[in-house]
């Protein structure tokens, strides 16, 4: 029990709790310490027997998932995976420092990916690795004098890799994470796209779609599409769609002095 990851399930729907318990029960490294039927019960359980990990529903009567975390002291907050039927809370989940965001209904494979990410994050934090400090701390440690990020700190398989911002070709949103595309490879980084772009030089990266941003030094040409959209062609041949809604933002970048 001491070596296993103590895990709490919080959901006001019994079938949802049962499914999470079934999936977690397959994992030898997980010990389910309790199930809470609402937010207030969750807070009481956390204070009485602090878990390492929590799968937390967002929409619950009286006290929702965000209010549960707000009711706890920072040192009491377990590593959290939000579980919800609504995608509109993704940015708020990132701001609450969730490690993942499961949308109901989710597949076994999607759950396993979220659990694996949460366990890796928890073990990194226990070991005092850079990634365990959280993305905000990492970003501030790697800012340029102008306040923009100069590099990303990536951790995988026990190795810490430093990736220069200038090496990233384009960025793709993936829930509370982004994929940093570098040539034929991609790296998962914990940040929402909107938050990350606030930390990047706007002359270097510009958003072309609600889920895409591009390194402006990698753009080779723009090809017109229908309905005011464009295809952004990168120097390596990658094609990204610029949606009409982000065209003014791109044109603003074009008007900036070199």
Strand order of the largest sheet: 2-1-3-4-5
**Span between N and C termini?**
60 Å
How many helices in DSSP terms?
8
- Report the radius of gyration as a whole number of Å: 20 Å
**What ranges have pLDDT less than 50 throughout 5 or more consecutive residues?**
129-141
> Biggest sheet: strands, sense, closure?
5 strands, parallel
Features:
258 residues; single chain; five-stranded parallel sheet; alpha/beta
Question: Can you describe what's shown?
Answer:
- This protein is of the alpha/beta class.
- 29% of the residues lie in helices and 31% in strands.
- The protein is built from eight helices and 15 strands.
- The protein has helices at residues 14-24, 39-48, 65-70, 90-95, 108-127, 135-141, 193-199, 247-255, and strands at residues 5-10, 30-36, 53-57, 79-84, 100-103, 151-156, 159-164, 170-174, 177-182, 185-189, 205-209, 212-215, 219-224, 230-234, 239-242.
- The strands form four sheets. Strands 2-1-3-4-5 form a five-stranded parallel sheet. It has a five-stranded antiparallel sheet with strand order 10-9-8-12-11.
- Strand 6 and strand 7 (159-164) form a beta hairpin.
- The protein is elongated, with a radius of gyration of 20 Å.
């Amino acid at each position: 029990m001491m070596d296993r990851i103590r895990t709490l399930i919080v959901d006001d729907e019994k079938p949802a709790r049962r499914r999470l318990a079934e999936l977690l029960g397959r994992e030898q490294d997980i010990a389910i310490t309790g199930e809470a039927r609402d937010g207030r019960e969750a807070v009481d359980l956390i204070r009485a027997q602090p878990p390492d990990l929590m799968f937390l529903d967002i929409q619950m009567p009286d006290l929702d998932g965000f209010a549960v975390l707000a009711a706890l002291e920072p040192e009491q907050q377990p590593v959290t995976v939000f579980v919800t039927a609504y995608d509109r809370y993704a940015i708020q989940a990132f701001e609450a420092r969730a490690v993942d965001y499961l949308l109901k209904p989710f597949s076994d494979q999607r759950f396993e990916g979220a659990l694996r990410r949460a366990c890796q994050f928890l073990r990194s934090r226990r070991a005092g690795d850079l990634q365990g400090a959280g993305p905000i701390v990492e970003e501030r440690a790697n800012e340029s004098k102008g306040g923009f990020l100069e590099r990303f700190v990536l951790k995988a398989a026990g190795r810490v890799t430093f990736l220069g911002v200038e090496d990233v070709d384009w960025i793709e949103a993936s829930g509370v994470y982004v994929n940093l595309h570098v040539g034929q490879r991609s790296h998962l980084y914990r940040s929402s796209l909107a938050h990350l772009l606030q930390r990047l030089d706007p002359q270097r990266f510009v958003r072309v779609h609600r889920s895409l941003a591009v390194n402006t030094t990698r753009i080779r040409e723009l090809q017109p599409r229908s309905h005011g959209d464009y295809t952004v062609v990168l120097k390596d041949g990658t094609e990204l769609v610029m949606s009409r809604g982000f065209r003014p933002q791109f044109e603003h970048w074009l008007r900036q002095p070199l």
